[in-house]
Design brief:
With 431 residues, this protein is α+β, with helices and mostly antiparallel strands. Helix content is 28%, strand content 23%. A 6-stranded mixed sheet has the order 3-4-2-1-16-15, with helices on both faces. A 6-stranded mixed sheet has the order 5-8-9-10-14-11. The radius of gyration is 29 Å and the shape is globular.
């Protein structure tokens, strides 16, 4: 009890020694920081090609079919109302630009479309209402991401569909890194004449899984390199990963939370490099999970994803914003196992669209930011743990410090003589 009283008095004295509270911006006459909400979207358009242009063999669109598809895409974009939209399966970006113009949400002079598609194969693209200050396409894997099995490197060196990286300047002054990617599909890697062979098909599924997993590992390395190069820059990842959240390939890309018994520095490093699924964040806040962005053979799955970095994780004391809500546009998807009608999605899309709204804190400081700053300046205010006499590891709240070893008093039973002596020394209470 006396030790606790001493600790309380020490902390009270430290609080009295803290510097005076700073004058707020409103008290100093500055305008109140405006709240900013960023809307990002994910859109797989399903083979957007010019008219009378062959793709995947002899498939092609007529002029009327292209107009119908562009009109439908423009209608979906008008419903999404996003500042940033990532697209997949773009063959000709000029057709996508026409859909952006028809949507009415993007002014031609302000909307910037970033795409490196040349019509030879499907590519990804990004539409931004804000200035894009950096843009590049990433084809090759990082050298450290090439997998080695039993001492042999797999002959995989590049993405089948290159990754798009862009840095967007937001109105609140934040530079946001955006990645758009499209991983290998689940379609088996087999020749057309061998698709009916069940053995060949099984091997083809395994090959497809290896390709998708290798691409996920390569992007994981790219993402970590981005964090190491720009540690203070938030990241958003948009893409069709062709798999759900809790599978090996997706967890390779996003990372897995650390084991709770790992040392604190190791857990902090893992938390720093995690990607957080906005769908999972929404599901945790909802009463029921009814989200799906793709239907195939009666299976309702979320294959389209929006991931955010630790800067938008509420568990991070220095997060600058958070995911407010997530919505999906999937009314056009039809389960073909429940109907005999010939349903065609060529003029629409076989994927649903995802919209995520991210709310930034005014001044990029969350309610816990002031406490985290004070704790970093005054680590003595951190609640102490039982004394061990060892040095604590450094945390995000401040550097480590030595635990003070409290003197331990030996407990023993008093002898009868000591009891009588103590009684005689007590003050007498007057009767």
């Amino acid at each position: 009890y006396q030790r606790r009283v001493r600790e309380f008095r020490q902390k009270k004295n430290l609080l009295l020694q803290l510097p005076a509270k700073r004058m707020s911006q409103q008290e100093a006459g500055f305008p109140r920081p405006k709240k900013f909400k960023l809307r990002v979207g994910q859109f797989n358009v399903c083979n957007l090609v010019k008219e009378d242009t062959k793709y995947y063999g002899n498939s092609k669109y007529t002029a009327n079919e292209v107009k119908s598809k562009v009109k439908w895409i423009a209608g979906q974009l008008a419903k999404m109302e996003c500042h940033l939209v990532g697209f997949e399966e773009i063959f000709h970006p000029e057709v996508l630009q026409e859909a952006l113009n028809q949507s009415g949400c993007y002014e031609k002079t302000k909307c910037e479309l970033v795409s490196f598609a040349d019509g030879s194969h499907p590519s990804v693209a990004l539409a931004s209402s804000f200035p894009v200050i950096e843009k590049e396409t990433i084809r090759n894997f990082p050298a450290e991401s090439v997998p080695i099995v039993e001492g042999v490197e797999l002959p995989l060196r590049s993405f089948q569909r290159p990754v798009l990286r862009a840095v967007v300047h937001l109105p609140n002054g934040v530079h946001l890194t955006v990645f758009v990617l499209h991983l290998k599909s689940k379609r088996p890697v087999v020749d057309a004449e061998e698709r009916q062979d069940q053995k060949k098909q099984a091997v083809g599924y395994a090959a497809s899984l290896i390709l998708r997993a290798t691409e996920a590992a390569a992007f994981r390395c790219i993402y970590i390199n981005e964090l190491n190069k720009h540690p203070d820059r938030p990241v958003v990842v948009l893409g069709d990963l062709n798999d759900v959240v809790h599978v090996v390939t997706t967890e390779i890309l996003s990372g897995t939370p650390p084991w709770k018994k790992l040392p604190r520095p190791q857990r902090e490093e893992i938390w720093r490099t995690l990607l957080y699924s906005t769908n999972e964040l929404q599901v945790r806040l909802s009463d029921r999970d009814v989200t799906y962005s793709h239907i195939y053979n009666g299976r309702y799955e979320v294959l389209d994803h929006i991931f955010v970095s630790n800067a938008f994780n509420k568990g991070n004391p220095y997060h600058i914003g958070y995911v407010e809500y997530l919505s999906l546009l999937n009314d056009h998807l039809i389960d073909q196992t429940t109907t005999d009608d010939n349903v065609q999605n060529r003029l629409q899309s076989d994927h649903g669209q995802i919209v995520c709204q991210i709310k930034f804190y005014p001044g990029l400081q969350n309610p816990y930011h002031r406490f985290a700053q004070e704790a970093q300046l005054h680590p003595q205010l951190i609640p102490s743990q039982p004394s061990t006499g060892q040095k604590r590891p450094s945390t995000e709240y401040g550097e480590g410090y030595e635990d003070q070893q409290e003197p331990q008093q030996e407990l023993r039973q008093e002898t009868p003589e000591e009891v009588r002596s103590n009684r005689s020394q007590r003050p007498q209470v007057p009767q």
